[in-house]
Amino acid sequence: MDSFTHKKQQLYLVLSGIFIVNALLAEIIGVKIFSLLPLIGRDDNLTAGVLIWPVVFVTTDIINEYFGKAGVLRVSYLTVALILFAFGVIYLTTKLPPAQFWLEVNAKDNQGRPFNIDFAYQSIFRQGGGIVVGSIVAFIIGQVLDATVFQGLRKLTGGRYVWLRATGSTLISQLVDSYVVLYVAFFVFGNWSAKQVVNVANTNYWYKFAAAILLTPVLYVAHFLIDRYLGPDDTQGLQSEAAANQSV
């Protein structure tokens, strides 16, 4: 194996690892809805998962830049399989009978009030099927759209303006993702009203919008480090290959 092939494989492995870990964490913690009221003085709500989604879509753009649409979709499909596996394992653990001593030593909270730790565990980790379906559907649609728009903008600009194709693809794909996941999970399968879905989706999207803009310098830093790691000639060759190979 030559040096370039080794570096290429290592780069894809590292980027894929960052992508998968953050996507999986975002899906698991996304069940929590928190309020921005204490932070910004407004009654806006966000899903906890959006806090680390910016890492996912920045990594998506970097993978797309060096490995093309096929590289993005390959790791996206793997991530979907791993998310389903993780949810399956977590669900099975909620079905395990709790040890009696575990219930007894955790029978009260810090203020001495009765506390059922097994019920709390199940409430947090036993996400409904609707949430899983909504997350997976939105994730796949968002990734396919992001990869497609990224390559379209790349072709349109002749490979110039990294910020435009990265930010543009993110803003378009996350607009769809933000509404689809909440609509499917909490309106179709849940008990949210359409107004609640729109309110939370709006806040989620504007957070992602701001994050995409603010993380543009991070994107350039990542490109600088990767270009130094690969070298100028190999970098250009890999980017040209990614731009030419857009098959799924």
TrEMBL record:
Q: What are the TM regions of this chain, as residue ranges?
A: 12-34, 75-94, 131-150, 171-193, 205-226
Keywords recorded for this protein, A-Z: Cell membrane, Membrane, Transmembrane, Transmembrane helix, Transport
Subcellular localization, as worded in the UniProt entry = Cell membrane
Judging by the UniProt lineage, the source's domain of life is: Bacteria
InterPro entries with a match to the protein in the record? YhhQ (IPR003744)
Q: What is the protein's membrane topology class? A: Multi-pass membrane protein
Q: Which family does it belong to?
A: Belongs to the vitamin uptake transporter (VUT/ECF) (TC 2.A.88) family. Q precursor transporter subfamily.
Main function: Involved in the import of queuosine (Q) precursors, required for Q precursor salvage.
Q: What is this protein called?
A: Probable queuosine precursor transporter
Native organism is: Hymenobacter aranciens
**Lineage of source species:** Bacteria, Pseudomonadati, Bacteroidota, Cytophagia, Cytophagales
